[in-house]
Amino acid sequence: MASGAGSNFEALVAACQRGHLAATVCQLVVNNPGCGAEQRALRLGVPCTIHDHRSYASREALDQALIASFQATDVDLVVMAGWMRIVTQGLIDAYPERLINIHPSLLPSFRGAKAIEQALAAGVRLSGCTAHLVSLEVDTGPILVQAAVPVLEADTVESLSARIHAQEHRILPLAVQLAAARLELI
Ligand code: GRF
Questions:
Q1: Which residue, 29, 113, 150, 166, shows the most beta carbons closer than 10 Å to its own?
Q2: How far away, in angstroms, is 61 Cα from ligand 1 center?
Q3: What are 145's strand-pairing partners?
Q4: Could you tell me if 6 and 35 are in contact, meaning their C-beta atoms sit under 8 angstroms apart?
Q5: Residue 128 zone, left/alpha/beta (φ > 0; ψ -120 to 50; rest)
Q6: Does the Cβ of 104 fall within 6 Å of ligand 1?
Q7: Does the active-site annotation cover 20?
């Protein structure tokens, strides 16, 4: 599941292709037509389905459509790889222990959409990223993997984002591997 650039989606595909993750990325769903993630899926040959949230009457209706897409390809695990929508209990219940999110902070610090801005404003000297199982409250749920990065004096949103992204691309495949192993899927 992706909404934006899709670099985490591509990192998962690459980890599978390199044999670092014993999985197959069988489909991508996006909510923003034409987003970078959709373009990457085209280039990588991963089937992509667009579920534009503006076409659904409610969050619940969108999530039910997502579940139908996932069931159509019989997926074992679902990854919110930069999914910028709040998910509902229906989706969480459809994939218990199987719905993973990646967030650009060391949770439980700096939840929400502007995590990197919040970290800079707070003046922390360490930040990072968290891959976790999804609970109903935004950016909460059991933590699978975290990575820390330094926050430098001269950092901007862009420079700190780049440092965190590099770590996200490393820990997200690890988190998928861990979640799958726990469920004895691999
Ligand atoms: C990442 O920073 C992720 O933590 C957050 O959204 C961003 C997505 O980046 N949830 P990308 O689209 O994978 O490049």
A1: 29
A2: 24
A3: 131
A4: yes
A5: left
A6: yes
A7: no
Q: Tokens 């390809």, residue?
A: 73
173 lines ligand 1 (CB under 6 A): no
| Residue reference for tokens 């991508």 | 28
Q: Which two tokens stand for residue 139?
A: 């950016």
Measured in angstroms, how far is the CA atom of residue 64 from the centroid of ligand 1?
23
Give the contacts of 67 (CB within 8 A, at least 6 positions apart). Answer: 90, 91, 94
Cα of 84 to ligand 1 centre, how many Å? 9
Average pLDDT over every residue of 81-92: 98
| Secondary structure E strands in the chain | 28-30, 48-50, 78-80, 99-103, 126-133, 143-150
Selecting among 103, 132, 165, 169, the annotated active-site residue is 103
Average pLDDT for 106-126: 97
